[in-house]
Every structure is written in C-alpha cells, then in structure tokens.
Amino acid sequence: MHQACILQQRLNHHFPQVRLLDELCMQDRYVFPCYGLLQTLAGLVDAQDGYVEVFKIDYCPLNGIPTLNLILSGTVDMLLLDAVFDRYQALLQAAAAGPGADYQP
Question: Which of 16, 27, 80, 105 counts the most CB atoms within 10 A of its CB?
Fold first, then answer.
C-alpha cells in the first residue's frame, strides 16, 4: 500500500482537478492502472475547468480490485467515457491476474 501513498501525493501535486475524498488503501498492483484512469479523467474535464471527485473507493473482497465511485463535473462524451472505463477495467483485471497472465487489450 506504499504505492497508494505516492499516488495520493502525485494527484495532489499534478492534478488539482482530482479530489479524493476517501482514503487510498489499494494493493500496490492496482496503483498504476488507477493512476492512469484518474489522469485520463482529469484530462477529460481539464479543458472545461471541471473536476473529478472520488467520493468512495470500494474493494472487491476476492481480489482487491478497486471500484472508484466518482462524480465528473461538466460535459463529457459518454461514449468516450465508456471506452475509458472499459480500457482501465481490463488493466485492473490483468493486474489481478498477476504477472505472466495472458493479457488481451
């Protein structure tokens, strides 16, 4: 969970439009995909002076995959948003499978 602390610091310094209202307690293997997701979402709302608010993070009891409950301000293309979530869901599942797993993007 050490990497989750680093993620929190990076978001605070580089992405002020991302507001974390819940503690990051995720396993290290999920930090990189979650950082990518939040960075992508921040880019989607950044041009509109919007924000991404993560108000709750749930963790799967079987494998620890985090589920971010969030609010996006402004107008975001829903098809693009669906594609972003699909992409990062696949990355989180690959991280859950562990090293050497057959990943199909």
Answer: 27
